[in-house]
């Protein structure tokens, strides 16, 4: 056996295995990039559940012509420079892997025009060495990433794709989550040329409740109470549904940590424990919660898709969430029974 350096395309395809599981993972990475670029308006055009096409246009800061090649290269990012930066992550991305990985398992075109640049340019990579080509393009301020034929060259992955409907429902879920985390950003989601979701920018409280109702249902928006609790560096806000109105399925359990949607055992345990003694049989906690803490107290570099985090002060985080939700629920239950007693 001789040891050989892998061609860049192959190395990127292997890396893609970690972050690009299905079309919705591509959508998540691209939307996060647009948000990191300060976009306030995103339009997503999806075809055939994303396996034919995923195109995302944003009005963010764009990428200058000289950096398009870098944007498509692995381990190239504008978001961190040092290990120290990794300790205080303020952006959603930082691995510098998404565009290179996705580009190695699809036909990807990156088109961008920063406001300070006169013309728009487009770039794409091809071949074993992922050689980048650049051409002039027409595009307003911002960026479009246009991806066609996801997994066309990795048949093993392509085989795992489910029906168009299932893949699209995963994409829809990703957009709903992100829309819940960024009320100030407008989202438009189209599938096969039809408008599926339209979330206009929601700056006022009324607009936010409208978005909440669109995503979690009218019942949720009516029944949920707000929570707003602070303790030192910790801040918990969001909406809690009173125990007796909680749902039978756990489909509305959204927990965001510093703006990132999480599926974290510690957090779900704390919420479940807080609800436990009030919850009628076969109901599950129903909530949309946002937990903010200083970025240096949480490690997001645990999982490539960043679904999990590690808290430095695990116990304190758990107890803060548990006790504050318990207190909020106690009040809800008390007001509810005093109302029904009238
Ligand atoms: P990461 O997000 O981890 O930095 P990516 O591969 O997702 O890595 O993106 C590489 C770089 O390309 C980003 O750091 C950013 O500078 C640039 N970029 C990607 N998408 C956009 C976008 N929509 N708008 C502006 N810049 C972008
Ligand atoms: Mg990224």
Automatic annotation (TrEMBL):
<feature type="domain" description="DNA mismatch repair protein S5">
    <location>
        <begin position="212"/>
        <end position="330"/>
    </location>
</feature>
<protein>
    <recommendedName>
        <fullName>DNA mismatch repair protein MutL</fullName>
    </recommendedName>
</protein>
<comment type="function">
    <text>This protein is involved in the repair of mismatches in DNA. It is required for dam-dependent methyl-directed DNA mismatch repair. May act as a 'molecular matchmaker', a protein that promotes the formation of a stable complex between two or more DNA-binding proteins in an ATP-dependent manner without itself being part of a final effector complex.</text>
</comment>
<comment type="similarity">
    <text>Belongs to the DNA mismatch repair MutL/HexB family.</text>
</comment>
<keyword id="KW-0234">DNA repair</keyword>
<dbReference type="GO" id="GO:0032300">
    <property type="term" value="C:mismatch repair complex"/>
</dbReference>
<dbReference type="GO" id="GO:0006298">
    <property type="term" value="P:mismatch repair"/>
</dbReference>
<dbReference type="GO" id="GO:0016887">
    <property type="term" value="F:ATP hydrolysis activity"/>
</dbReference>
<dbReference type="GO" id="GO:0005524">
    <property type="term" value="F:ATP binding"/>
</dbReference>
<dbReference type="GO" id="GO:0140664">
    <property type="term" value="F:ATP-dependent DNA damage sensor activity"/>
</dbReference>
<dbReference type="GO" id="GO:0030983">
    <property type="term" value="F:mismatched DNA binding"/>
</dbReference>
<keyword id="KW-0227">DNA damage</keyword>
């Amino acid at each position: 056996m001789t040891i050989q350096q892998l061609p860049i395309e192959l190395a990127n395809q292997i890396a893609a295995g970690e972050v690009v599981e299905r079309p919705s993972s591509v959508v998540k990475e691209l939307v996060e990039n647009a948000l990191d670029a300060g976009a306030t308006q995103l339009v997503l055009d999806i075809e055939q559940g994303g396996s034919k096409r995923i195109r995302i246009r944003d009005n963010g800061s764009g990428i200058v012509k000289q950096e398009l090649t870098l944007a498509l290269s692995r381990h190239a990012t504008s978001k961190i420079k040092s290990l120290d930066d990794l300790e205080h992550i303020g952006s959603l991305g930082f691995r510098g892997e998404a565009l290179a990985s996705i580009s190695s398992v699809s036909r990807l075109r990156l088109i961008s025009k920063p406001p300070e640049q006169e013309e728009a340019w487009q770039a794409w990579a091809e071949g074993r060495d992922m050689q980048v080509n650049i051409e002039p393009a027409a595009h307003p301020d911002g960026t479009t990433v246009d991806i066609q034929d996801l997994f066309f060259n990795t048949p093993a992955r392509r085989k795992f794709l489910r029906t168009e409907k299932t893949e699209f429902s995963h994409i829809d879920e990703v957009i709903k989550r992100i829309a819940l985390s960024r009320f100030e950003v407008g989202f438009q989601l189209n599938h096969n040329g039809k408008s599926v979701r339209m979330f206009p920018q929601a700056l006022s409280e009324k607009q936010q409740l409208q978005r909440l109702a669109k995503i979690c249902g009218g019942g949720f928006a009516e029944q949920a109470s707000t929570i707003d609790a602070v303790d030192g560096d910790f801040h918990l806000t969001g909406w809690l549904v009173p125990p007796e109105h909680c749902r039978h399925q756990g489909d509305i359990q959204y927990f965001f940590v510093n703006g990132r949607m999480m599926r974290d055992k510690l957090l779900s345990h704390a919420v479940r424990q807080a609800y436990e003694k009030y919850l009628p049989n076969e109901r599950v906690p129903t909530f949309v919660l946002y937990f903010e803490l200083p970025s240096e107290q949480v490690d997001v570099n645990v999982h490539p898709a960043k679904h999990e985090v590690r808290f430095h002060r695990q116990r304190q985080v758990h107890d803060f969430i548990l006790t504050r939700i318990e207190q909020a629920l106690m009040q809800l239950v008390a007001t509810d029974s005093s109302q029904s007693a009238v």
